[in-house]
Design a protein that fits this description.
six-stranded antiparallel barrel; 8% helix; 117 residues; globular; two-stranded antiparallel ribbon; 1 helix; 2 domains; mainly beta
Amino acid sequence: MLIVTMGSSSCKESSNKAEIKSLYDSSAVRSGYYTDTAYKYEYRTGSSGNYEYKYDIVGQDEDGNDIEGNINIQGKYGSGTVTDIDGNERNVEVEWVGYGELEGTDDDGNTYTLEAD
């Protein structure tokens, strides 16, 4: 699930699309509400400009271990956190490398192959 905000404003995160649409329909951002199910982000708000996208991600570390997490993307780059199967959380810097595909690096230099969920 993805929620998008513009600039420093934020919105309530939800896993229910109907709840998200209700939030946007009932808020001041209604006039900037945009839906496009052809893309992974599906929802964003605001007008043309500096959007921030929030994605749930899944992937693997360099040893092939499964990870999941959340990231914020602005343009081609972003940051967020990943969690391994043992519950260990790490901060990551990410970069788009293809449609829905990202590469990430944590503070210790470990690399991750990621996919926007």
